[in-house]
Amino acid sequence: MNENETELKVQALVDGELTGREAEELRARLESDDGLRTLHARLTAMRGLMTGAELPRTLPESGDFHWSQISKAIEREERQTKRLARPASGAKRLLRWMVPMAGAACLLLLLTLQQTTQPYLSISLGSDHELELSIDDLDVMTFNTGDDNMSVVWLDYSIDLQQDEIDLWLD
Amino acid sequence: MPEEPAYSSAEEPQLVQWAKSGDMQAFEELVARYRDRIYVRAYSIMRNETLAVDLSQNAWVKAWQRLEQFHGEASFPTWLSRIVTNLCLDELRRQKRARTDSIEAMEETTGPVENRMEVETIDPVEGLSRGELRERIDAALAKLSDKHRTVVVLYEFEQLEYREIAEKMGTSIGTVMSRLFYARKRLASLLKETLKRDGLIE
């Protein structure tokens, strides 16, 4: 145990925070250690000085004014609480449903428009086919599965395409 | 017509009971009885009159809102004192985020301050009234950093245990012990200085 730890334990003993065996051991040590005994005495004196030493003060505003501030704040808080707890009116309740529904409808419309503007590619692929495109700006990836008799084709058509510009050759 | 309760002569538990049932006049009487006490605790921690008044008011508002939670385990003023103390600690945390604590900065550069100080011997001084001594202690407390003064106020005046202080301040018991030790050394040193200056001790 270093010196600082011992000092803190002496303080804990003075404050009644050190109990049991630890307290007994420290008390025994105090008997033979002048330095620790002095520290114990000084801390005890300091505690005595601090007991009831909080300086009494008077609120620097009148009691009536203080109360008026408190009661106004209480009323304000209660109004706020009531307002938050009050059930929404018919129009507000309708609006609460309408906003997300309108949002969902807009999203659906957007997706539908996107679908209809995609180039229509009427192609049918069997397995083991290669795909060639007439436009260099269009990226394509294919994946064929022989077992499932299925081909997956990814087309990157972010460029502005007209349906009649695409010719696909399958071999 | 029912007679209005005699608030000013009513016992504290009765006033609390009335206030719990929504009687604002009973609560007003409680405020009148303990407003100075609550303000003193806020001032002891904050050392700022305006802040102490504001925090005391907030404490009363919170007390009204939480009256149902008061079951009389501690006395009503003790319960109130805990509320205002918590508000003060919240305010200090808020302030701390905006500035650097000087003691912390010293510790970082030169090691713990408390290792470089002795605990002074302060004997009760003859010819100095309790009131005068309180004033000197108060002046010395004002010179401590927020965190050291707060530990002293919570331990000596609010009479909390180390563990409770650690919980409230969000720190370890070891840190509380260390801060309290340093604060006491510094207080003793400041008191000795002022008493020497006034020729009350050699």
Observed structural traits:
heterodimer, A: 171 residues, mainly alpha, 12% strand, flat, B: 202 residues, 9 helices, 68% helix
Description:
The complex is a heterodimer of chains A (171) and B (202). Chain A has 171 residues and is mainly α. Chain A has helices at residues 3-14, 20-32, 34-50, 63-85, 90-117; strands spanning 131-133, 139-145, 150-156, 168-170. In chain A, a hairpin with a 4-residue loop joins β2 (139-145) and β3 (150-156). Chain A is flat. The N and C termini of chain A lie far apart (87 Å). In chain B, α3 crosses α4 (76-96). The longest helix of chain B has 25 residues, at 173-197.
Count, helices of chain B: 9
Q: Note the beta-strand portion of chain B.
A: under 5%
- Separation, N- and C-terminal Cα atoms of chain A: 87 Å
Number of strands of chain B: 0
Helix vs. strand class of chain A: mainly alpha
What pattern of helices and strands is seen along the backbone of chain A?
HHHHHEEEE
Report the average pLDDT across residues of chain A.
78
Layout of helices and strands:
The complex is a heterodimer of chains A (171) and B (202).
Chain A: H1 3-14, H2 20-32, H3 34-50, H4 63-85, H5 90-117, E1 131-133, E2 139-145, E3 150-156, E4 168-170
Antiparallel strand pairs in A: 1-4, 2-3
Helix pairs in contact in A: 1-3, 2-3
Chain B: H1 12-20, H2 24-46, H3 49-65, H4 76-96, H5 102-110, H6 130-142, H7 146-157, H8 162-169, H9 173-197
Helix pairs in contact in B: 1-2, 2-3, 2-4, 2-7, 3-4, 6-9, 7-9, 8-9
